[in-house]
Structures are given as structure tokens and as C-alpha cells.
Amino acid sequence: MKLLTKTTRFYLLISVPIFLVAGMIFFFVMHYLLDDEATEQLYIEKQKVLNYLAAAHELPDLSLGIGDEIFIQPTQSTFTGRLNDTMIFVASEKEKIPYRQLIFPATFKNAPYQITIRTTLYENDELLEVIMFSMLTLLAALFISLLLVNRQLSKNLWKPFYETLNRLTGFRLADTKPLLLSNTDIDEFAELNRSLLQLTSKMQRDYSALKEFTENASHELQTPLAIIKSKIELLMQSDGIEESSANQLQQINESISRLSRLNQSLLLLSKIENRQFTNTDSVLINSVVEEKLLAWSDIILHQNIRVETSLDHELRCNMDAALAETLIGNLLSNAIRHNEGGQVRIAIEKESLIISNTGKKPSVPTSEFFHRFKKENTGNDSSGLGLAIVQQICNVYHFKIRYDYSEGWHRIRLDLTSHFIPD
């Protein structure tokens, strides 16, 4: 979730309840004030009636402008007066109208009377509705305005941050150019940019030093290894060498070859981890599989392996061509090298490559074979880095790979969904 969206959600979660509570409080306060005003007006008019009776010689009527309605009638009962609300049907309105009435006793010419003064609450309700509608409209307009202003203000304030984020997204350690960040007058973002510039500069220096070291180390190791290997081969071809000495030289030669392959694998791993393979091509996986099978045809024939292929679906993906060959080559090598007189099945589905081979049950969890130097048989000439290199390539391109064993079959499924190119 984006920061601006999350900020807006928090604003809504906080503001909406506040506006609702404020609206309810305003409604009840206005309702109370209007009711209180109606009650107070009735008591004022009651006092007017009492004053009129004390000073006049006749009973008051509606012409005096007291209340909306006034009823005066003789009474024989004794009561103290009461205030209540009632609903009265009004023929002109064809509906019941709410009224508040005040009933109180009065004496005129020594005779007791019951006086009822009524005032309509209908206008108060209409006034309250108009006020509430106006206030809610105003609050809604204010809320939307504040929301838009807050969103635009946040967008402007966070603009330097998003610019920095975009620059970091496009930054590559292999680039020789330093990270370029825009200036900002916000102290926190300016400090962030300064820290990022220092950090990326140090990372570029460390990356260049590491890259140079691995390349030099690989080159310096390969040269003496090649010399030692050639010297050993010359010794093995010389006349008069004893069989025991020849066997020892053969073992040394195999160790040198293994050491050379190990050095090359470690260098490849280092390059993959440092993202030094930046080329991107549309690679046809079917063709790579066929080329690798052709290259391994002699070993397949020698080990009497039956290979079944199902490459009807065309599978392409965007990746470095050299890494694609390494990826497929290592998977096929793993299926063929550890398979004597068995079967290998290769199938391409819509977005996946599945390689299965017969073999004995592994003694360790299959997921551990993707770790460096992890292999089933420590005595063979495998470097133990083949599947580790496969895992690193999958990490670079966000491929998914899974290794299972069931009923005598090793099965590796490679899902190329992340960089899959549909037909």
C-alpha cells in the first residue's frame, strides 16, 4: 500500500467519526435549544395571561396574540398545572401536527378556570431540518475540501521522497556514475539524500574492489592450474614411467581439473550474485534443451540412459542467454550424471520446465541440494555447486524451482512465470 493512500485512510478513519459525532452533538444541542425556547415562550405567555386577567375585566382571546391556540374553560377541579407534548390533527394540513401545551389554573371574578396555551412544534422541526441539512452540507463540503487539500499537500511534501525512491530503483552497482538525487528544502529528506549518497558511493567502491578481486583471483588461479595440468599430462606421456606413478599423476590431474571447475563455478556464482549479467534476450527454452541434449548425447549413450522428451509447447523467457544455458545445462547435468542405466524425462508445459530422472532415494532433504557444496555422494567429481548456481539464477529472475522425490523418481520443476513470454 502506498504511503499517500495509507495516510488518506488514516485521515478518513479519524475524520469521519469526528464529523459524525460533531453532527450528532450539534443536532441534539439545536433540538434542546429549540425545545427550551418553545417552553420558555409558553411560560412567558402564561405570565401575560395572568397579568391580563388581573388588569382586565374580560377573558383574553386569540386576538391578543398569545400562543398559537388558547383555550379558557371553567373548571371545578383543583390542579397545579402541567406541560406536555401532544399530536393534533389539522384539517388544513391533512396530518397530525406536534404541539407543546401548557395547562394551568387561573381565577377570574372569583371563578376558577383552566387555561390551555398551545404552540406548534412543526415549525421548530422544519427549522431543525433546514439547519441540520445546511450544517451537514457544510460539514461534508469542509470534509471533502480538507481531504483534497491534505492529499495534495501530502503529495507535494512527499514528492522529494518519491523522486529519491525512483532514482534508487534505477540505480545499479555496476554503473560507474554516482547516484544523482535532487535537492530539497525539507531537512529530513535532505539528510536522507546525503546518507544515501554516502552509502551508495561506498557500495560502488566496495563492489568495484570485490569485482576486481574475484576476476584477478580467478585469472591468477587458472593460469598456474593450467600450467600444472599441462606439466602433469606431459609427465604421463613420458616413457619409462611406472604404473603406480602414472596412477598417482592421473589422480593429481583429476584433482586439478576438479579444482579448475570449482574455481570457475565460484567465479560464476560471484558474478551472478553481483548482478554482472545485465543482458536480456528472448530465450527459447526448447532450443536450449535440445542443444544441451545433443552435447550430452555421448554420455547418455555411454551410460545407457533412456531420454524421453515432450517439447510440444514453445516456452520463451526474458533473461541473459549465457545464464539460460547454464541454468538448463546444470539441471540436465544433475539428471544425467547421477543416473546409471535409468531414465530421464523432460517436459515443457505452458510456463514450466520439468526434468525427472530415476535414482536412489536421497539421504538428505531435497531442498538442501540447492545449498553450496551439498551433494549426495562426496566421492564423485561433482563440485556440489551446480544446483546452487541454479538457485542463484532463479533468485535473480524470480523463478520458482522445486525438487521432489517420489517412488524412485527425482523431479525438478522450474516455473518461469515471472519472466514468461506468452506465445
Q: Could you give a quick summary of the protein structure above?
A:
With 423 residues, this protein is of the alpha+beta class.
**Sheet having the most strands:** 5 strands, mixed
Record the strand order, biggest sheet: 6-8-9-11-10
Strand content: 15-25%
Element pattern in H and E: HEEEEHHHHEHHEEHEEHEEE
Structural account:
There is one protein chain. The protein has helices at residues 3-55, 122-157, 159-169, 187-237, 243-273, 285-295, 297-302, 321-337, 386-397; strands spanning 69-74, 82-90, 95-108, 111-120, 281-284, 306-310, 316-319, 343-348, 352-358, 400-406, 409-415, 420-421. With 423 residues, it is an alpha+beta fold. The protein has three domains: 3-155, no CATH class; 188-273, Methane Monooxygenase Hydroxylase, Chain G, domain 1, CATH 1.20.58; 281-421, 2-Layer Sandwich (Heat Shock Protein 90). Strands 6-8-9-11-10 form a five-stranded mixed sheet, with helices on one face. The chain has a four-stranded antiparallel sheet with strand order 1-4-3-2. The mean pLDDT is 79.
Question: What are the SSEs and their pairings?
Answer:
Blueprint: H1 3-55, E1 69-74, E2 82-90, E3 95-108, E4 111-120, H2 122-157, H3 159-169, H4 187-237, H5 243-273, E5 281-284, H6 285-295, H7 297-302, E6 306-310, E7 316-319, H8 321-337, E8 343-348, E9 352-358, H9 386-397, E10 400-406, E11 409-415, E12 420-421
Parallel strand pairs: 6-8
Antiparallel strand pairs: 1-4, 2-3, 3-4, 5-7, 7-12, 8-9, 9-11, 10-11
